[in-house]
Design brief:
Layout (H helix, E strand, L loop, with lengths): L8 E8 L5 H11 L20 H6 L6 E7 L2 E7 L7 H8 L4 E7 L6 H12 L3 E7 L8 H12 L3 E3 L1 E4 L7 E4 L4 E4 L8 E3 L3 H19 L3 H10 L4 H13 L4 E6 L7 H11 L26 E10 L3 E10 L1 E3 L2 E5 L5 E4 L2 E5 L2 E5 L1 E3 L3 E5 L9 E3 L17 E7 L5 H14 L4 E5 L4 E6 L2 H13 L5 E4 L6 E3 L4 E9 L6 E11 L9 E4 L2 E4 L4 E6 L5 E6 L11 H13 L7 E2 L2 E9 L7 H18 L3 E13 L4 H9 L4 E8 L2 E9 L6 H8 L5 E11 L2 H17 L1
Parallel strand pairs: 1-3, 1-4, 4-5, 5-11, 6-11, 26-33, 32-34
Antiparallel strand pairs: 2-3, 7-8, 8-9, 9-10, 12-13, 12-21, 13-20, 14-19, 15-16, 15-21, 17-18, 22-24, 22-25, 23-24, 26-35, 27-28, 28-34, 29-30, 31-32, 35-37, 35-38, 36-37
Helix pairs in contact: 6-7, 6-8, 12-13
Bound molecules: guanosine-5'-triphosphate (GTP) and magnesium ion.
Length: 718
Amino acid sequence: MKTYQTDQIRNISLLGNSGSGKTTFAECMLLNGGVIERRGSVENKNTVSDYNAIEHENENSIYSTILYTEFKGKKINILDTPGLDDFVGGIISSLNPSDTAMMLINASNGIEVGTEIQFRHTETFNKSLVFVINGLDSEKSNFDKTVELMKERFGSNVVLVQFPVNEGTSFNAIIDVITMKMYKFPPAGGNPEILDIPAEYQERSEELHNELVEKAAENDDSLMELFFENESLTEDEMRKGIKLGLIERGIFPLFCTSAKNNMGIARVMEFIVNAAPAPNEIPSPINTKGDEVVCDTSGKTSLFVFKTSIEEHIGEVNYFKVMSGEVREGMDLINSTTSNKERISQIFVSAGKKREKVNKLVAGDIGATVKLKATKTDHTLNAPGQDWSYEPIKFPEPKFRTAIKALSESDDEKLGEAMSRMHVEDPTIIIEYSKELKQIIIHGQGEYHLNILKWHLDNEFKIEVEFLAPKIPYRETITKIAQADYRHKKQSGGSGQFGEVHMIIEPYIENAPDPVKYKVKGKELKVNVRNKDVYDMPWGGKLVFYNCIVGGSIDARFLPAIMKGLMEKMEEGPLTGSYARDIKVAVYDGKMHPVDSNEISFKLAGRNAFSMAFKEAGPKIMEPIYEVEILVPSDRMGDVMSDLQGRRGIVLGMSSEKGFEKISAKVPLAEMNKYSTSLSSLTNGRAMYSMKFSEYAQVPGDLQLELLKAYEEEQNKE
Ligand SMILES: Nc1nc2c(ncn2[C@@H]2O[C@H](COP(=O)(O)OP(=O)(O)OP(=O)(O)O)[C@@H](O)[C@H]2O)c(=O)[nH]1
Ligand SMILES: [Mg+2]
């Protein structure tokens, strides 16, 4: 392949709800560019994208796939993304290197939840956006309705470049109001006949042409002047205005296709090479030092790795965008994260699993390399002497978690390796080795997402695992003052043990004064704080320890042991073995034995006195509460609301948001297990949600009893 210059490159990510036709569309782009000779299909499991076995099995994209095609002297890098929100990692990591997002909309279904979610991602990443209404050959296709909904939802920036002729099962032509021509396709699709617009469509074409001209002129004063002067713009002037509008997200041009029949894709590709921005025409990225990185081949070499996959027989494949300068085969670059020198021994352009070697790639281009020592997604490779790096790709918060366990313990290590490998390929899979819950928890974007992980473990790594309900990271605390004393005594032959601790505990309240006296069992007890230590618990909250020992009843050298005993119980709370927090402990008296008192005695005495006092101090279990935001179509609002109430959810607010109802609520984590699956079935997959930790709150009394009972049963089992 020849080396394409920056202005000859277009980086396009294909977005759209699952089933909108992205992979099929990409296949047409490769055929039209001569990268393949025959089109495969998703049904026949032989498309260039979707080459993973699991994608064949599920007949939908699960990973993003990097492809390229060559068209009219330009190179189009294509990032085919998975439409399902479970695989949002592939969408976000593809938006990063792309300069223009192309959103496919299914002509029969109109705006779907995936359309909505991904439109928001293009807003977040400020990407130029082109719309394509695909599937105009379908029986249920409804172009006008879809356009109406799009203008309602995405506003007046949606501007038609084309409209279909003979929409439905006999769809075979498109009218384009930039070129003011009709494109009539042969039954097998492919190259159209370019004809004059038939009289019956003239009026509509003129109308739409003027609308587009006006919109194009809006983006540049000199074009506006030309427009006022000539009451129109030439095709090239229109393209210039549209490009400026695209860069500003001031215009969302809309095209018409049937990817299944390869109708209209070549015209879209023509638009992309003529009017979509090249990598050096979009705003320059800012590196972490705050410098603008200009997309210029004469600049210093800097590559950003936006995706890493692990391929059999090859190992890690790092996909990168050349942010500045050029990369040549054999070059040594420095990884600004690891400071390692990395030899770029080979450079590839890839179309699915097909890889073609190239000698060099210039600024703005996308490529892949292999056999690097320790380079991962989000890493930057620079020419020696330069230490740029770029903001890491921001993936959404996880919204589904499960515990995982290898069926056979001998697989534990293999499981760890396999999972960290999957995290490298998909950073939205987060593995947590929870010491607290004594579980391995995997966090992901949905049940389907984690079932794919399980599929890989079963089929590729041959590790049998089971998913278990993840435990809830409860917290324990107290609500009132309690006193306890405990004598630990073991004096039956050999070295004895003896230690006695008297303590008072009370809830920790911010800025409350140190204790002076307590009322315990009706009697007043004065304490004299000799020393105070405040500990921030690693899991949140405080522990305050007061040494109020008088008269040397406990030697100072045993206080750290008492503290150790306390900490053990703070780590494994007396109620359910959960972390405890926000407690003040005053040790005010005790007893020692001249011979038998030692550290272990006082650790145990401290620990048990604390447990006893804890159980008398109005102990409470706290549960994590999450803020949940749900976007749901209004016709399903009632179902979602009552389901939330059934999950002890407290609705904080509701608002209409562009065709969706937005519900904000606070829901206990314990009630959110498998929520993505329930929400999807409640709304036919037409809702989306996000959740993030909010605070801890006391569990209801009946639940506390249940948890205590369950813990007791567990203890008895051990
Ligand atoms: N009738 C019709 N079917 C189409 C068209 N484009 C795609 N399809 C079919 O729609 C189904 C989904 O197509 P894909 O290309 O896999 O859709 P996708 O957007 O990649 O879906 P995900 O990978 O799940 O995000 C397949 O059965 C295609 O054959 C079209 O233009 N017309
Ligand atoms: Mg696909």
